[in-house]
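Team,

Forwarding the record for the chain on the shared tracking sheet. I've put the sequence and predicted structure together so nobody has to dig through attachments.
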Amino acid sequence: MLMFLRYLLAAPLLLAAVIGVPTGYQVLSSYLFRRELRDGTFDFAGEFRDSFAETVVLWPTALAVGLLVVFWWMTTAWPKIALVPSVPAALDGLIFGLLDGWKHAVSGVAAPLVAFGLAWLAARVVARPLTGDVRRAAVEVAAGLRGGGRLRVQSRRLLLDELPPPVHPMSPIGRVALRFDRIRSVEVGVVHSPAPWRLANTSELTVTPGPALRIIGGGQEWLLPIDDADEVGRLVSERAKVRATPDPRPPLDSGRWFHAKMLWELAGQEPPILNTRTVNHGNRWAALIISALTTPMALFSISRVFTHGWGYLVGVLVFGSTAWIATHVWFRQGTVYKLTEENPVSPLADDPDLHRMPVTGWSTQDVVLRQTSDL
């Protein structure tokens, strides 16, 4: 119930980000243009309705709303989704700014910044503070690592992203994940001296002195420098107990293991040349956006076939086939990369020793939980 109230509070911020900002920019742009022409009084309400119906606002806004509905739990994606209808406004403002004054450029550039900020604030309303309802819910919670990197506590798994580039140039992934049902130990401690820590995808973290979170499971061992390690550790432990769901792996002879097996072969190897380039995870977001844009066009063409003749059958074929291909690419890449992220170590490997000291200068500490509401 309390999570519903959080989403209820965040909804106006999200609507303002994906609908109010791009429409408001169009109204402001029209107002500035009319003021230069000294064209009588300006009807803000009427202009707002007309601007919302414009193609440059309506279609990107509908796409953004659809993405928010699909990714209602992925709070880290909300600011990026809010940019979908605002980036066209920024481009429009820059073009008009070059032709018709700096005010258009300033308002255009401000649109995506405001939209991003509103969506970020909405994500904070839903995910913070870490009360009991958040810890048991499906909503994603992100925690930054000291020195770079991010831990995302999702509905069924943990995900590490924004990591340094893998040191091995043949590593197929730049992220690693660990499902809740495979977690064997969550331990909070303190690192007293700097130490490197290499993950299974060969990305290397620098564990700086301070609180750290040690997680073992699925053949992996993570040592994460997190300032609020006790709070995040409690979040991971409690959500794992509540939301852990077994996910059977495909047979090891399946073609979906191609990238994972490539990564297993790199275990323990030192590359001759250290990699400095980030991993390209494919064009999943581009495929999803293309699918979201062409699917309504295909449906629109289908409706026109029955009302305006068979000529619209061309649109059905073009947009429909494009939507199907894009959806297939998005789903296929997502399945393969998710399997590799969650299995960077062979399923046949044993878990690391729980009693082994991970790095020099590591000491466990009693988990002193901060005073948070369990409502």
